Amino acid sequence: MGAQTLSISEETEQDLTSPISKALVVLDAVAMAESPPRFVELLNALPLSRATLHRQLRQLVKEGMLVHDEVHQTYSIGMRVLRLAHSAWSRASLASVARDTLDMLSTQIPETIHLAVLDNNQVLYVDKRLPPRSVSMFSSPGKIGPAYCTGVGKAMLSALPEARLIEAIKAQSFQRHTDKTLVNETMLRDELARIRERGHAYDDEEHEGTIICVALPILNKRGESIGALSVTSTTYVTSLDTMVETYLPAMKAATNEISENAQIALGV
């Protein structure tokens, strides 16, 4: 397995004064990695000594927060973290507000439906609806993905205030995933301008080959994004033009409903 490049925020580097902050930065690095990282990848990315990192990893595995794959010598998020996340989403989050709307939308659209939010300037998938026939893809609830090359990510970025957008763009890796990936800030900003003009975003095989999606931002009362909704399919089944023509009206109604309900329930 080839080595991957992990990154952390400037805020993280400045706040490692307690055992809790050290444990959290390790959890963040594992959660945001494109694939389960090895010890050396974490060591190269984090401002922790070898001994401290060993100690943190050992304790996090013991507590069920991380899982250590002894065959491949990698680390991944443990079930205890997933249980905590599920509890948080189910009680007070956009996922709880949107649940009924997603259920209804899934009866109207026979494709994969995603609900996502921005977390630390990356995409956090918080809910998903699968059709009777579905294809394997990267996204699943609890998984973190890049904002610059996903439909939901670009939809949310397009509706951020400029100060927040600058911060979010700085946090993007611009790693190339396919021949269609946007690989720099200029390309991304040009695409965000097009998204604002037409009102919806695309993922045109930018993160995964053959995977396409149409996405809409979910807005608060100030017109800023608090999440995004997408419908995802594959080039083997349909095209972006067909998806827009067929699904966009129902998607717009769903995002408007989620936005209204979120303003009431979450006060956003």
What's a quick, concise take on this entry?
The chain is 46% helix and 18% strand.
Q: What would you note in describing this structure?
A:
- The protein is an alpha+beta fold and 268 residues long.
- The chain folds into two domains: 10-82, Orthogonal Bundle (Arc Repressor Mutant, subunit A); 92-265, 2-Layer Sandwich (Beta-Lactamase).
- Helix content is 46%, strand content 18%.
- It has ten helices and eight strands.
- A hairpin with a 5-residue loop joins β7 and β8 (225-234).
- α7 crosses α9 (185-198).
- The protein starts with 9 loop residues before the first helix and ends with a helix.
- Residues 9-14 have low confidence and may be disordered.
- Specify Rg, calculated over alpha carbons: 19 Å
CATH class of the largest domain: Alpha Beta
Please give the number of β-strands: 8
* N-to-C SSE string, H for helix and E for strand: HHHHEEHHEEEHHHEEEH
Q: Into how many domains do the coordinates divide?
A: 2
Mean pLDDT: 89
CATH architecture descriptor of the largest domain? 2-Layer Sandwich
Name the beta content range.
15-25%
Please give the alpha-carbon distance between the first and last residues. 43 Å
* Oligomeric nature of the chains: single chain
Structural class, by secondary structure, is alpha+beta
CATH superfamily of the largest domain, called what? GAF domain
Number of helix segments? 10
